[in-house]
């Protein structure tokens, strides 16, 4: 699905002599509904990482103090707005607004009371966690029962790769070694000798794939 891009820019002044310019480039993902969480999550995380905003949704995020104590020229002490907090708040609200715009109305109603992007992200993840875990279990089951049988090596490996990519999108990526072992496990008895050679020589996935294609030809 094609997506458009827009630049969100915000200016704010911390005092008469200081201002900061904040600019982010976000793609417009498909809107989150009850059926596309994994795809939505992948698109949203890509944009967040691309803008270096991962800390804003991290559980370990450190939020600056809203006010700081400042000593004036005459020696008196006063509480003033913290420029670091003002800057953090501006960035966070831009991200929060984008997250709110990326979900459908039903899900939007469940996160409207979230005051910052971390709370909104946490709420969405909580709503879909059980669904994600069930999806991962189902994908792993599909991988475990997949066999080459009458398929060509190319067709079989493509099916394995598609399932592995879906697992990665669901937050459960496979290593290249695990991917290779999954392929070998489903080849069947006709490939036992070749599989033994691949394992004994600690071949990479790409080299093993090339060898399997050559063997089939």
Automatic annotation (TrEMBL):
<dbReference type="Pfam" id="PF14223">
    <property type="entry name" value="Retrotran_gag_2"/>
</dbReference>
<protein>
    <recommendedName>
        <fullName>Retrotransposon Copia-like N-terminal domain-containing protein</fullName>
    </recommendedName>
</protein>
């Amino acid at each position: 699905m094609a997506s458009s891009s827009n630049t969100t820019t915000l200016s704010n002044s911390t005092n008469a002599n200081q201002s900061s310019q904040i600019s982010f480039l976000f793609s417009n993902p498909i809107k989150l509904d009850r059926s596309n969480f994994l795809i939505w999550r992948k698109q949203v995380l890509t944009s967040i990482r691309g803008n270096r905003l991962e800390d804003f949704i991290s559980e370990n995020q450190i939020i600056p103090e809203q006010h700081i104590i400042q000593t004036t020229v005459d020696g008196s002490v006063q509480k003033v707005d913290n420029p670091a907090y003002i800057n953090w708040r501006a960035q966070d609200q831009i991200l929060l607004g984008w997250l709110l715009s990326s979900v459908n109305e039903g899900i939007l109603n469940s996160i409207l009371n979230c005051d910052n992007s971390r709370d909104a992200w946490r709420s969405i993840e909580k709503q879909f966690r059980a669904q994600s875990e069930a999806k991962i279990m189902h994908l792993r089951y599909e991988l475990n029962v997949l066999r080459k049988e009458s398929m060509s090596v190319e067709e079989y490996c493509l099916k394995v790769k598609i399932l592995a990519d879906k697992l990665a999108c669901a937050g459960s990526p496979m290593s290249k070694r695990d991917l290779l072992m999954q392929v070998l496990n489903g080849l069947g008895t006709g490939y036992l000798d070749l599989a033994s050679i691949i394992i004994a020589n600690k071949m990479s996935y790409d080299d093993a794939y090339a060898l399997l294609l050559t063997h089939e030809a």
